[in-house]
Amino acid sequence: MDRTLTDVKIRREQLVSITNGEPVAYCEALFATSSAAPEFIDITDEVQSIVAASGARYGQATVFSGHTTAAIRVNENEPLLLQDMARILHQIAPLHADYEHNDFSRRTVNLDEEECANGHAHCQHLFLSTSETMPILEGQLPLGQWQRVFLVELDRPRQRRVLVNVIGVRG
Amino acid sequence: MDRTLTDVKIRREQLVSITNGEPVAYCEALFATSSAAPEFIDITDEVQSIVAASGARYGQATVFSGHTTAAIRVNENEPLLLQDMARILHQIAPLHADYEHNDFSRRTVNLDEEECANGHAHCQHLFLSTSETMPILEGQLPLGQWQRVFLVELDRPRQRRVLVNVIGVRG
Amino acid sequence: MDRTLTDVKIRREQLVSITNGEPVAYCEALFATSSAAPEFIDITDEVQSIVAASGARYGQATVFSGHTTAAIRVNENEPLLLQDMARILHQIAPLHADYEHNDFSRRTVNLDEEECANGHAHCQHLFLSTSETMPILEGQLPLGQWQRVFLVELDRPRQRRVLVNVIGVRG
User: Fold this and answer.
1) Nearest to C78 among B67, B110, B129 (CB)
2) What percentage of residues in chain A have a pLDDT greater than 70?
3) Which are the contacts of A32, defined by CB distance < 8 A and separation ≥ 6?
4) Closest to C39 (Cβ–Cβ): which among A6, A20, A142?
5) Given pLDDT bands bounded at 50, 70 and 90, which one contains residue B108?
6) Facing residue for A14 by CB, picked from C28, C41, C126
7) For chain A, N or C: smaller number of CB within 10 Å?
């Protein structure tokens, strides 16, 4: 614990240096239907396919969840690990704990007809994220060996909308 | 818990495909004064206004906090929920717990004249984020029904600086 | 706790408005060797140097970890604080707790020859992030006084690869 900071040697390697490339802006929506919660839906292949379709050789892709109870995360797709992560999310903000947000006797804001008790999902989402931004190199996301992009359902089964937004250059 | 991963059907829909658009780079600073901690300051309207002012039709906006004890998060602006989220932040890293960072008898680094005991705020910030990057479609952030952008004050009331940085094309 | 939301006054200031700048796409890889876990490796100077080398005057830099057990975070580089943050990470997902991911008697997916028990590192990573995206103004990251960019090793000492990806305009 007393070695959390060190002077490590850092090596650099230039991969890309492009000027005057033709600008590209490209966006697709992904619609995925979750079947449980929490659920880690692996959308990596679709995201890579969209990046390829964009025509951008270099740039950035932002994967953006349009929801406050569904998040975007990059982690490993190993089924037992997904159970561990579901358990940790539950520890942080359990489904059946007390949430003011779930007190429909007091709440007056943002109530709609299908309102469910989902305070836990919002609180879990606070610690995950709405988006992830990744580099594009040679027309694809240069993901590491174990990196997969997940849409994380935190609330209940339903259709979710994710935007995959690319900005870059043709190279 | 044994259904955290599934093969869900995913549908795609192309929204934008622009090449040769005129590049846009635009940035504004927002200065907001917090009045409590934790405090969730809803800056959505200002961010949308800045995106509109940028002239970018497609691209990305990054909302960036210039602070290590104030974060950027997207979640729902429902007052009772904000209380739930404040409580969960407190559980993760309570204000009055022991932090090495607050031990001014031992600490020698980064001390300034106004130094306050804010170890909890740094530790909460670790689990939130410094920025959020969002797509721009048709000149605005395509936020979902409940999505609002918050500057989250974690430390104590003061003026905070947020950058809203746009990069994109006129379309 | 009843003042988590307020109507604060927000002031705006335009910093940049560029059109027709020459597009820039630039990327370098950083290779850093960690020596402990958790370890906060301060890569700020290298990232700033890469942004300068890119030639981009305005735009965005994404710092991206190519790993599922090493994260990117922006926080303060104060040695005692780094110990606090290491402790909080341990509370969230302790090294020696039970993880399904570590049960090699049951696990069948993504096993390689060097497989180690690292469920805690994946679970900690879930609450940190794979990347951070930051604005570029006048050819550098406009970091606040205490902001430093860290590669956070969560697993065990080894070489890690970080991409620093710039997209912007020459201005």
Assistant:
1) B110
2) 95
3) A41, A43, A151, A159, A160, A162, B8, B9, B10, B11
4) A6
5) confident
6) C28
7) N
Q: Do C41 and A6 touch (CB under 8 A)?
A: yes
What is chain C's mean pLDDT, rounded? Answer: 92
Segment A66-88 mean pLDDT: 97
Tell me what percent of chain A is helix, strand and coil, each rounded to the nearest 5: 20, 35, 40
B23 interaction partners in chain A (CB closer than 8 Å): 23
Mean pLDDT across the stretch A69-82? 97
From C13, A61, C157, select the one nearest B27 (Cα to Cα).
C13
> Which pair of structure tokens corresponds to residue B155?
């430390």
Which two structure tokens, joined as six digits, stand for A154? 């935190």
What does pTM read for this prediction?
0.95
Query: Order of strands across the sheet with A131-136?
Result: A131-136, A58-65, A159-169, A23-33, B10-19
| Chains touching A (3+ CB pairs < 8 Å) | B, C
Select the residue from C84, C149, C167 to test the B interface by mutation, using most B Cβ atoms within 10 A.
C84
Flag whether the ipTM exceeds 0.85.
yes
Write the single-letter amino acid at B75. Answer: N
pLDDT band at residue B38 under the 50/70/90 scheme:
very high
Q: CA B40: distance to chain centroid?
A: 10
What residue has token string 């920025």? B131
**Residue C1 pLDDT greater than 50, yes or no:** no
% of chain B residues with pLDDT over 70: 95
